[in-house]
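Q: For a teaching handout, I want to show students what a protein-ligand complex looks like in token form. Below are the inputs, and the small molecule is (2R,3R)-2,3,4-trihydroxybutanoic acid. Please produce the holo structure.
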Amino acid sequence: MTMTRRTGLKTLAIGATLALGAAPALAQTQVTFQHPIGINSHYGAGTTAFKETFERLTNNRFRVVYQRNDNERETIEAVQIGTIECTITSTGPVGNFVPETRNLDVPFLFRDTAHARGLLDSPIGQELLQRFPARGIYAVAWLENGFRHMTNSRREVNSPADVRGLKVRTMENPVHMRAFQTLGALPTPMAFSELVPALQQGTVDGQENPIPVILNNNLNQVQRFLTLTGHVYSPALLLCNPAFVSRLNAQDRAALVQAGRDAAAANRARVTSDEQTGVDELRRRGMTVVTQVDSAAFQAALASGATQIEQGLDSALLRRIRDWRPGS
Ligand code: EAX
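A: Here is the structure, written as tokens, with (2R,3R)-2,3,4-trihydroxybutanoic acid included.
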């Protein structure tokens, strides 16, 4: 295997050792894909589907290589400067790059998964994707992280009152931080890469994430209590470096778009299956799970702080999202 380097993209000559009468070596361009949580996860299902489709539709002129990176802000910056080609990230830190996406991070904004997925696939969701190029990022597709739930190692959380005083790790997301402040918690923003050590050392008592993340990252090993708050929907995005995309010919660009669609479908299917089986699995791993949650109380507690939580957001867009119905 020989390596040559050209404009940051790696071109690989495969079969260079096959000297005698061999067909000329197939030049392959490497597409470096980074995201957290590993390949055996809801994000990994997206990456695997993307790889399969993109390599097939480009006749293996490209090779998608996955690398784990649990710091989403870092992977977005790497996509912007072109040290990697693509990433899958939650909207957690994305608002720091494309502030319009923060509108999606409001607690209890989406009624259910169908509302969230439908809205993101609708013109409203697609319009938001068009806000990325101006910030040096090509947004390929909406993927999914899932509805977020609370875990902690101090006590069972059954109502908003139980959250008061808990040190809770949040994503680097001011909307989420304001929401937990409203509940009387002490929010600490940090990258996912710092979460497990912070929980082990007791820097924070708890955190909140969708079942696929808690499951696939074995957070049951550092957290005792899980409460199915479902307090906010967590979208994810497949983002690529604009220069990489602009170098693609029309056929390869179409392959990228199709690979994005297949990635979204595989990712969502994995979230659905993790959510169906994950709670029992986490209970089996020893977590104490609170399923009967007073969701109305959480919604009321957060509604009392709505002005503060939604400050600086687009109230007209929030109304459109809340009012969205399939076919509307
Ligand atoms: O995107 O930071 C988080 O809690 C995210 O949910 C995680 O990185 C997966």
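A: Two things your students might notice: Confidence is low (pLDDT under 50) at residues 1-10, 12-20. The CA atoms of residues 156 and 225 lie 6 Å apart.
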